[in-house]
Design goal:
By secondary structure, the chain is mainly α. It is 72% helix and 2% strand. A two-stranded antiparallel sheet has the order 1-2. The longest helix is centred in the middle third of the chain and has 29 residues.
Length: 209
């Protein structure tokens, strides 16, 4: 949800970076292709977890930096407006990188028995985030110019911290049952349920054999 919110939010807020909406939108969008290519490389090189967490954290810091740098100094453009555009572009590049890699990570994280339903829920929350993006990027400006990018940046940083709790999935076999997932996390809360599930899985294997 946060990835989609920041991804589309930075796009909608491109016109507020320096005031040149068309130029800034084109500049921020040009980095989508190299970010997608880099996501593929980094997911295989350093893993899905780092490829998702590090960029979303940098994107959060960049959005916060944009919110703190003034666009105007009085009635004239601020001398730091170029720096504001730089952090906006960096934020868009990093959130695109994270947005592309988080789907791979999420797909591999869920067991096969619930993967379809889980990805459906992920899509729902992703669409909620993208639906909120224009309201955050444009509507909150009416209250204060700092709010849009500061809220997006703050949520991105919080998400990066929470994602640290999740496991790496690169170069590991995908989980097949919920029992596998509980065992991976070292949970002993549902020992009876897990035993029953294993028996059901074994029965299914015998029938298919």
């Amino acid at each position: 949800m946060v990835c989609s919110l920041v991804f589309f939010g930075v796009s909608f807020g491109a016109g507020d970076l320096s005031g040149h909406i068309h130029r800034d939108y084109i500049i921020t969008s040009l980095f989508d292709i190299p970010a997608a290519i880099l996501a593929i490389y980094l997911c295989n090189k350093i893993g899905r977890k780092k490829t998702t967490i590090i960029p979303i954290f940098i994107a959060g810091i960049s959005c916060i930096a944009v919110s703190l740098i003034p666009k105007k100094s009085g009635s004239k453009p601020s001398e730091l407006v170029g720096l504001r555009v730089f952090f906006g572009v960096l934020g868009r590049f990093c959130i695109t990188l994270s947005h592309d890699s988080i789907y791979i990570w999420s797909t591999e994280m869920y067991p096969t028995c619930v993967r379809g339903a889980a990805m459906g829920y992920l899509q729902i929350f992703a669409h909620i985030g993208s639906s909120l993006a224009p309201w955050v990027a444009k509507w909150l400006v009416a209250f204060h110019v700092v709010l849009p990018f500061s809220i997006m940046g703050g949520l991105a940083v919080i998400s990066a911290i929470l994602l640290l709790r999740l496991p790496e999935t690169a170069n590991k076999e995908t989980l097949e049952t919920l029992a596998d997932q509980f065992e991976m996390k070292g949970s002993h809360v549902k020992e009876v349920d897990l035993k029953e599930e294993k028996e059901n899985v074994n029965e299914i294997k015998d029938l298919t054999a």
